[in-house]
Every structure is written in C-alpha cells, then in structure tokens.
Design goal:
alpha+beta; Rieske Iron-sulfur Protein; 2 domains; 4-stranded antiparallel β-sheet; elongated; disordered N terminus; 2Fe-2S; iron
Amino acid sequence: MSSETGPHENVSDDKNLPSAQDASGAEPEVHTNPFADPGLAPHDPRIQDIDERAAKRSERTVAMLFTVSMLATLGFIVAYAVIPVDEYVYIFPIGRISAVNFALGMTLGVALFCIGAAAVHWSRTLMSGAEIVQDRYPIGAADEDKAGALAAFGEGVRDSQFGRRKLIRTTMFGALALVPLSGVVLLGSLGPAPGTKLRHTAWARGKRLVNENTHEALRPEDITIGSLSFALPEGLEHDDHSFQKEIAKAALMLVRLEPEDIKDQQELEWSYQGIVAYSKICTHVGCPVSLYEQQTHHVLCPCHQSTFDLADGARVIFGPAGHPLPQLRIGVDDEGYLMALDDFAEPVGPSFWERG
C-alpha cells in the first residue's frame, strides 16, 4: 500500500546532517568569545632600537629641551630682577598687561613645558617600548614578590638607559635643580619685613576712647555692667585713607566688671572702676571678637570659637587662639573722659615670625 508524502518526506532529523554551508564545501562558522583576552600585540621595534645614530639624535633632543628649561628659568630670575613692576606692554589679543607678569608667566611656562616634553620624548624614544603584563598581588606581598618588584625596578632603570645616557642625566639634573629657584625668587614679593609696625597702634597716652558708633568720647558712666562696648582712638575718622589699616590694629572692646570679680592683678591695675579694655582682634587669625557672656565673663570669637576669660587677663580657655587678648591700660582725664594711658604693651592680633 502506498501512501502520499509531503515535500519533506526525504528529510530526516536535521541535527544528524551537515548544514547546507557544509555541504557546499565552505568552512563551518566558529563561535568565539568576543570578550576573550587578545593578548599583547607583537612588539614593533623603533628606529632608535636598531639605529644608534637615531638614538643619539633623540638623546640630543631630550638634552636640548632640558637645556631650554634651564635657560627659561634663568630668564625668569632676570625678568623678576630687571623689569619694573609699573611697566606695561600690549599683547594682542590680550591687551595691555603688566610686563613683568607676562615675562614671568612665559618663562616659567616654557621651563615647565620643556621638562615635561623632555620626559615624554625620552620615554617614547629611548626607554624600553615593550609592553609588560604584571600580575596584581595582595597588599601583603611575600618576600619573593618584594624581591621580584625590586628586580623589576632595577630592570626599569636599565631600560630607561639612565646610567648610559649621561647627557640626558646631566641636563635633567640641571633643569630640575633650577626650576625651584623660581619659587625662591618670588619670596622677594612678600614685601619688606614688618619691623615695628605690628607693635604699635593708634593708641597713645592721653587719647580718649571714642564710641565706635556715635563717635562721642566715652565717660565711665557710659559703660554699664554686663554690656559690651566698642571704641576707637580719638582722631581716627572713617573717611581717613588709613582708617582700615589703623582700625585693624586699634579696635577696642570695653566691659565693666565688678572689681572683686577680676582675678588677674595686672588687669585690675590697668582697669578703671572695673572697666577693662581689651583688643577686639582675635589672636588666632584676626577675626573681630564680639560675643560676650555676662554670667561667665567670657568673650567668644565667632570665626573659630576661641574663647577668652575677661575676668582673668583674657586668657584663652578654649579654641585655637595662641595667646590672650592684649589689654589697654586706661584711666580718666581732667574732664572725666576715659583715655588711654599708653599703647598696647604687646602686638595685637595673630602671631607672626618676628613676634618672639
């Protein structure tokens, strides 16, 4: 008995037959891992690796860059010493700029650029160009791993040809030794030493204490217990061109305490009827001290919370301030106004190098 068959009657299970591509004689498709490590590409030697003359040219190029860096550093020093600070030049498209600033920027930029360019050219043409794969080790390496690291470092030094290329070595040391001189020279722009300027203020014997807000001379009865008042020296006006410079040293605060509450003997002798006068300038970084606690007689600097005890010589009881607030010795004149009996006995404000 016959039976009808469809178009696939002669096709068996397709997994047992080769594909049509195989039947045609083509190579079967191979599926590979697209993320597999391809390994290192073959190393192509550079011209400097096979031609010593090319290596010498690279060596001279590196040495030339280091030499230009040295010359630029010397130019920086000369420009700083020779070009006047008030001389200007026109540079297109920047415009009119300070000649000394332009010269310093250009010479220092060339000096640093040449050092970097020399290092890059050295590494790309003379140091070993072969890629090396190094396994990552745990933090606590074994002794043999440490020895291997030292050996690899030594191999790197040999590959850099640092010992062989004396011209490069000499010029590199010269460039690196001269560049820091740029910073040393700039120390001269810090200005002259302060001398005695920081040791004297606008206060002097006989100068009245003037209210900072009303600009009226203060009497003892104007200072009440528990209040904090601010004063400036008589004759110092806000419209003076030197006002800001002088008030930065002469700013004064006044507090009235009960005489029996004052613990420091000198503070008591330098006060008047319990009125004590201290510098308003914090001895940490010079912020204005302005927060007063009546019950504790403490005054607080709002910048970094340095706290001073006004009943005990304004000594530091908390915070980063380095020494107590200087006290101004005060009294009254013939007309009953508060006046200074002298300048501050020590410099006001933060410490400085010459303070001693």
